[in-house]
Amino acid sequence: MEELLARVLRRIEPTEEDRRRAESLSSRLVSSLSELLGREGVEGEVRVEGSFAKDTWLRGENDLDLFVLLPPQAGEEGLRRVVEVAKGLRGRKRERYAEHPYLQLEVEGYRVEVVPCFRVERAEERCSAVDRTPFHTRYVLERLDEGKRREVRLLKRFMMGIGCYGAELSVGGFSGYLCELLILHAGSFRELLEEARRWGPGTVVDPEGFYPDPSKARLLFPDQPLVVVDPVDRTRNVAAAVSLPKLCTFVLACREFLRRPSERFFFPRPPRELKRVELWRLMRRRGTEFLCLAFRTPPVVEDVLHPQLRKAERALSFALGERGFEVVRSEVWSGRLSLILLEVFPPSLPPLQLRRGPPLPVSEEDFLGKYLGKKGTWAGPYVDQEGRPVFEVERREREAARVLEERVREGRGLGKHVEEALSKGFRIYRGREVLELCREEGFSLFLSEYLTRCLPWYR
Fold first, then answer.
1. What is the pLDDT of residues 189-212, one digit of tens each?
2. φ and ψ at 387, to 5 degrees?
3. Which tens digit of pLDDT belongs to each residue from 355-404?
4. CA 275 to CA 272: how far, in whole Å?
5. Superfamily for the 13-130 domain
6. Domain 283-348+398-458: homologous superfamily in CATH
7. Which CATH number describes the domain made up of 144-265?
8. Cα→Cα distances 56→8, 27, 141, 270, 410, Å
9. What is the number of other CB atoms lying within 10 angstroms of the CB of residue 366?
């Protein structure tokens, strides 16, 4: 295994040229931004944060994070002013919003983020979530030596290879800071995998020992599959973004890698983009109905959009389930259009629907009054083998596509931005029509992955 890990490290560690380029650009950007802020009378300290500052970045990771630390009294207006001033930097710019505004730049092949935050004495005094970041950087720098930096790089690349890297809500995985803490906790990449192979939902990692009784940490962070207590803020779970599927994928990957080490865990084969004829063959053989709700993507950041797409996905799946359809699998995707893909069985239901009332001794009066002598009641009431009163009625909606359309037009409970976008227009693609969406950049690869889904290292 050691030889394999050494080969991986040779592929992922930044070269001297990589370092020179990144250091040169970061130095110039810090100088330029400091000068711009000073010229505008903004009292702010510019610092490089993130993986570059901690020297845990990987070759090919061209990301730089510039934080501008402001006095707390600068307030929201101060944050906005930093973003406006930073627009004076060269490069393609895009203003983004999370909890607060920030600026994205593309400069010399790097993606640069300018993030204003407040300077506080302790992380617990934060005014916004990003105020903790300088404390994270300092904590890691004080504890990571060169050997552990290599171990962090191995873990990051492993997480990328198995599809578990990234705390974005669209990923639900492990952040770079979380990877750093896990290496500090376990000591090395291999030792972490040996420990994590025994993890399950409810695992608690507490680097500073804030909670000697793990059950207290679980009470503080309920319903979170993995708890890693932030060493600079005991009230925060660094692993809050990690979903149950990603945790279980990581645990399974640890077990499989320790049994059969392979570079495929770090560098899996990329998914193959299938042609339309292949996609249709795979869709047709499943014997299910593919429904795809498409609408114009609302102008919000991914971490705002994705949870609302998931909320809409759950609501639509529930509506179909209530009407007797099984949602085999569903997924969401966004580009120019936002899509909610629902794989349903069966495509249509028979006209007959049974309506069963409550068992004795619950009163049946309301149930009988609902159907007795009403239009659409075909038979009943009678008592079935379970002792329940039964009516046989005409099914109001037999087609899954019609049920979906009805629920979309109802609108409520789908997420604010999704509902607003749907109100401006939508289309439901059905069966082979779904392939028309392959004209959207990235969709055919998304559908290819959906139809051939498997863990990355098995590709």
1. 999 999 999 999 999 999 999 999
2. 80, 20
3. 888 887 767 778 888 888 888 898 989 998 888 999 999 888 889 999 99
4. 10
5. Beta Polymerase, domain 2 (3.30.460.10)
6. Poly(A) polymerase predicted RNA binding domain (3.30.70.590)
7. 1.10.1410.30
8. 15, 18, 10, 24, 49
9. 10
